[in-house]
Queue: 2 jobs
Job 1
Amino acid sequence: MRLTLDRTSSIPFYRQIAEQLREQIRSGELPPGTRLPPERRLAAMLGVNRTTVVSAYRELAAEGLIVGHVGRGTIVAEPQPSPQPLGSSVAWAQFFTPITTVMRDPLLYDTMVVSARPDVISFATGAPAPEFYPVETVRALLDEALHHEGQSLLQYCPTEGYPPLREAIAQYLRQHGARTTAAHVLVVSGSQQGLYLLARALLEPGDVVAVESPTYLGALHVFRAIGARFLPIPVDRHGMHVSVLEDMVQRRRPKLIYTLPTFQNPTGTTLSLERRQRLLDIAIRYQIPIIEDDPYSMLRYEGPALPSLLSLDTAGIVIYLSTVSKVLFPGFRIGWVVGPQPVIERLSTLKQLVDLDTNALAQWAVWAFLTRGLLDQHIERLRQTYPVRRDRMLSALEAYAADVLAWERPGGGLYLWCQLQDGLRARDLLPEAARHGVAFTPGESCFPDGGGAEFLRLNFTYPNPDQIEEGIKRLAQAIHTLRANRFGRDRTAVLARPLV
Amino acid sequence: MRLTLDRTSSIPFYRQIAEQLREQIRSGELPPGTRLPPERRLAAMLGVNRTTVVSAYRELAAEGLIVGHVGRGTIVAEPQPSPQPLGSSVAWAQFFTPITTVMRDPLLYDTMVVSARPDVISFATGAPAPEFYPVETVRALLDEALHHEGQSLLQYCPTEGYPPLREAIAQYLRQHGARTTAAHVLVVSGSQQGLYLLARALLEPGDVVAVESPTYLGALHVFRAIGARFLPIPVDRHGMHVSVLEDMVQRRRPKLIYTLPTFQNPTGTTLSLERRQRLLDIAIRYQIPIIEDDPYSMLRYEGPALPSLLSLDTAGIVIYLSTVSKVLFPGFRIGWVVGPQPVIERLSTLKQLVDLDTNALAQWAVWAFLTRGLLDQHIERLRQTYPVRRDRMLSALEAYAADVLAWERPGGGLYLWCQLQDGLRARDLLPEAARHGVAFTPGESCFPDGGGAEFLRLNFTYPNPDQIEEGIKRLAQAIHTLRANRFGRDRTAVLARPLV
């Protein structure tokens, strides 16, 4: 039995031990009947706590790989004849509804696969820096919550949300100028759920949704799955081109306007105050509800804070979405929809079908983060850290990729939006980048109507500064390789002929 | 300032303190500028921990009711001119899609309202006994999880679920005879979400679903919202009348069969082994997928364990649903769908739209409950406790209500299914029962096609034995009152005439 622990790895020791033993049992290196060292001895040998070894043994026992025998210690189990896993003679494809077929994006799937490789530096995710997750605060809060209110927090929760959290969210928004009360708030299982519920409550197949082009790709998936059509509105340095919307609105009659006005995903741009007013005017004049998706406004590094559409709204036509996923961590799955009461009531009836209610314990913790100043403190820390990473990415781009990429400097949020030069396409770059050990999100997935082949979205919050430097170096090399190959091929370019 | 603590209440002290202070501030009894006692002194006065008072003050400060001043202590704040809360000039009703309008059931809403009254003994819920929630175990597990794997458990989780939990569920089901692997398992946010995803993936408007009549009311809501029609199959002492299904299946061509074969909600009946085989035969012969909803089989008090449809399935036509909500507690929102891989893949694509993924920390805790024998231990305890409550309910019914109700004795699960005699209707009983301080679920909400007016569903796990005794006494009085009034009125009965 060989066991080595990697003390620099983020994989917990008990997992490392279990993993290696599992491998050695499966390979036959530790044959059935082999006696494993007692927990205490193995712990001493490896220099870890006994509970670490206990956890590892437990995991293997649960998988049936080892068994404990009184008087004989822990033994590698006889392999059990594993039953033929369940197949299916049913032709399932014929049973599935059309809604479930439209949302597969092979390009994104490839991106996720590359992004998950341990040797790859990923700029593809939308996650905050994991090393800043306030794990110990969460630990203390959950302990307190279970101590004080365990029984009621493990019970079903009202569908609309844990009442003190609804009040705290309303209060937080009031402090930022919105005239909200708890009755305007629905707590949801991540803002993705809010988006889904809204799409279900407001859109039918064939309805038109005005969206920024490009926009959040998860929103495009939701709208497409319902059979909506898009009215794409271009984005410039000041956010959505509201005058284009104005020109189109009478002809296309959108049922809904979906926008990320602040530090937009993926472009990082922010809608100017003047355009905010104008957008609201259009919405009110033509009676088109606005969904304001606002996960990023708290992550502002420069420039003045602009009022949300929600807080500018005097007519009750804005429905606002936010989440703690980008400012604390995504694992709690807590987001909120804020809007006029008839909307909140309708969405909560729908949420009752979809999943009844949201984890009350997680809601309690978010309530504590909000009301005890812990969220503000945490965001303050991120606002020190993230601009450093952004600037590191900008200077690395300047150093290594200035000849092949163009970009803008965002004043907040998580992303840099880059444009490949010389007609190169991000989907061709993806496999080349994978070979160089770096991943990104291809921009075309963010466009409602095709196009955008030359764009890529780079996240600068998940990787640390050294990884950012190294990742951009790799990315630049990949682009240079792609360009060299491309221009090699282009000399013998063949014009596309129609296939007949 | 008057403060009294109710030491027998389940409301935590800090909430009691905050509540009373809030009331006194709002009523003007504690006017703005009033200095509150220092935390330590108030704690001593009340005989509680200082942290209890700190928590109470924090809550009031978060609401803007009190403020801390350096050197002056804690002061009641000046009331802030509260802005006019946001109304809406938008005629929202015209914007909502039809799906969101079908699922309002005023009868159930009334039931929930009555059930939530503190003076009411509720037999209406579907929750386990809260006093047995393993709060301390959960506390220790979450602490361990955050200590060992905090960072990764607060991250996004794969949509299909936390891999070790998928494996543990597959293993648990293998031990009960199913041929499942982790790839057959999708972790969902409560089995309600599994049901919703399945309905979305498999049903289109107008499709027919075969259901037991009566059945789980939440399933009826989901199917109705999608525009499905029902093929209701009656239930007798041995579960669904499978021969009726067989007679109807060719004429009505159901797209799906939805069944709760074990300790059915609401009737408590269990499908016999012979009928299980026959149901599978029909499903395979006519290629109709079965959804087996199985939240209750672990709560078996008597009789032999019957194999699940999943474990009898040789063709891969069964999709299985379960949850920890009925055996541990509902607050984690963890359930699972188990079925053929094409189904799991399709559902997980859909789940990505609906809420991306499920809380990983809660999944870790459920994994620990399953793999460390903690779930089995807990269920063992419930299997000692619940039959006592059931029998207490049965003997109370015998003592107080034998002349007005008929019932069956269930061998497991959470519910007694009762039938009013003399043509009385549960919907008429509901307000009378509310006046007597008792609540139940009206049976008619469980019927797909109207009817069932004389049935009521009584939960015997949530209230404790004394509450059960008292609640049945109140219920019997309410029925007697209703009957007296009814027969009073009936003497001057007016025949219904058609309205022309």
Job 2
Amino acid sequence: MSSIILTFSGGIDSTILLWHLRERGDTVRCLSVNYGQRHIRELTAAEEIAKLAGCEHRIIDLSNLRPLLSGSSQTSDEVEVPEGHYAAESMKLTVVPNRNMILLAVAGAWAVSTKSEAVAYAAHAGDHAIYPDCREEFASVIGQVLELCDWHPIQLWRPFIRWSKADIVKEGERLNVPFGLTWSCYKGGSLHCGKCGTCTERQEAFTAADVADPTVYQ
Amino acid sequence: MSSIILTFSGGIDSTILLWHLRERGDTVRCLSVNYGQRHIRELTAAEEIAKLAGCEHRIIDLSNLRPLLSGSSQTSDEVEVPEGHYAAESMKLTVVPNRNMILLAVAGAWAVSTKSEAVAYAAHAGDHAIYPDCREEFASVIGQVLELCDWHPIQLWRPFIRWSKADIVKEGERLNVPFGLTWSCYKGGSLHCGKCGTCTERQEAFTAADVADPTVYQ
């Protein structure tokens, strides 16, 4: 039983990770960040889910960073969200500059002030090489930074790092995760678009896991 | 000649570093952060100095992080700013949880979006062991994170790391830095208090450097 800060988007991966940690008996604090992302809808999902889980949840508004984060479709109205498969070159537009370092730094701050043992996030084996800050080497040195950022070492936990997204969905089914409350779509409409990279990946994961997908796609 | 993001507090160290980099011909963008610190006065100083230097300057308001940063005198009204020498145990109260990782992550984001070669900051040999995120090992792994956070590696520059604060003040004199515009005091009054850790250190540095200190102390 540990005290954990979970970076929590309200998507399927981090929601399943929340259920996974609760089953272990960990005390989980959920951190969501508004960094001016187009798909602000995910924060409403995060709020509902954390409430259902009975966890402390903080949404930190970092949209003031927006002037520094130019050039990404997720933080700029001038850049269209690309459709199609994640592997495509066009998905590079969805990269938010240095997002993971910022997110994990903020999670680290909360871990320092709550004397938590670890920061957890739902990185998985299917994370894509188009994101420089999803690389294994990146996570490894971030882990070292968190160990040194305070006098009590904070660990970086990535329990799903060897799992496929389908494996994660199977774990979610075992844990009775309320899939219907989670949000993935990058476009930020009232329904999942079914066409952007995250929607494509979400659909494929349910299919590969042979789990019923309750999501309503547009 | 490089393009550099400088973390810029408006204090003497980062101001002298700005002049030092300008002399080399680097293009410097100055980043200041409002993280809800008590000594908000330093941001006005930073603004004036960057203007005088003719540099692009952004002040990013991260005071939304305040609920996560409990327990520091610099971000909480309930904790008094300790007086006396930095070396004292009481100075631990001035530690803002994970501040340097957050600051360097935000600087890194701006470096990614402006395709800058480096992030610079004015760490020096006198930085204190009471701050876990001033440790050499910490800076070393942060440097590795910045190299990996984008497809173009970003360097971490700490040109003053082997200098004492007195050495830095001497460099400032050589470069005609407007010392009187800089701000150090942690208390945030209209004049430097002359008693807190940073004021004490500031006075000692001018004395040790044998440079006239134009600061008016209360």
